[in-house]
Amino acid sequence: MPRDLDRLIADTVAHVASRCPRPAPHPAADAVAMEARTWARRTGLSAAAEGGAVDRTHPVAPVAEAMHDAPVGALRITGLFATWLAVLEDRGEAVGWDPAYAASLVGILRDGHSTGADALHFALTDLRERITAAGGAALLPDLADALARHAAAAHREQDWLAAEAPPALPEFLDNRVDRTGVPLFTLLHRLDPALGAPGGPPAEGVPPLTELAGLLVGVAEDLTGYPRAMQTGTRLTLVPVLMREYGHSVPTAFQSATVLYGAWRTQLDHGVRALRSLPGVSAATVRQAQSTELWAAALNRHDITRGFAVHPLPVG
After folding, report:
1. pTM surpassing 0.90?
2. What is the CATH number of the domain that holds 130?
3. pLDDT digits (tens, 9 = 90+) for 94-112
4. Which of 82, 92, 199, 285 is deepest in the core (most CB within 10 A)?
């Protein structure tokens, strides 16, 4: 990798790390991570030999940070879902995103029926049963919608790459939020009773914060994953979009994206503080708002939604 690009990524990583304080992970983090690996092998998601998406991306790690004080049951289900999503992303990178295949997965969450019979379908059926048993049946329609949007965003990105035509910046950013795992994970976080009853819409004021969290995760992934994206040609990042939109060079695109990251991070922090200060705001609403900050920080520090080999963020 050219030295100047290496420096740009290092600067970006340092800036992201400075805005993402790292909480102590959940006390059950290691146990749930081990359980997730066992579950992945039992359901056929992961081969017996190490080296697949589950071993490469450590998908439970950011879940254990974002849900550091959640009940173990909620942590377990979300960690298993993160494991499943890592394998789905690996498949998408390898063979592409087929709308019919995605629809068969969404059908499992929507009504329990599917036309597929591979490991991803089997494991998602198991997850649906676990979510229902944990009292989260009311989350399933929204989770199905979020998964459908996620797969559709991946398919649009695939089309843009095939056409070698980056979209306009607003279209890319609209797509980018759903392309991250944020909408999916914040929904599953509501299995934690501290965030209120899982049924019904999110608290007023929280959806814009979730969107900001998705933008933050997307920008950080795009910058730290840029070398891998260029090498494999399987992902479209913000860098070439900014280059096309404004005629930026690669260094200027990196700097612009880092400025966007800082502005959106400040906006998210301010939004959460403003919501907390509202008279009569419920504790559950505050916790939902805080969860967006937790997921943004955790997923910024661990690239689990795409399997990119990224530069590790500082531990401190």
Report:
1. yes
2. 1.10.600.10
3. 899 999 999 999 999 999 9
4. 82
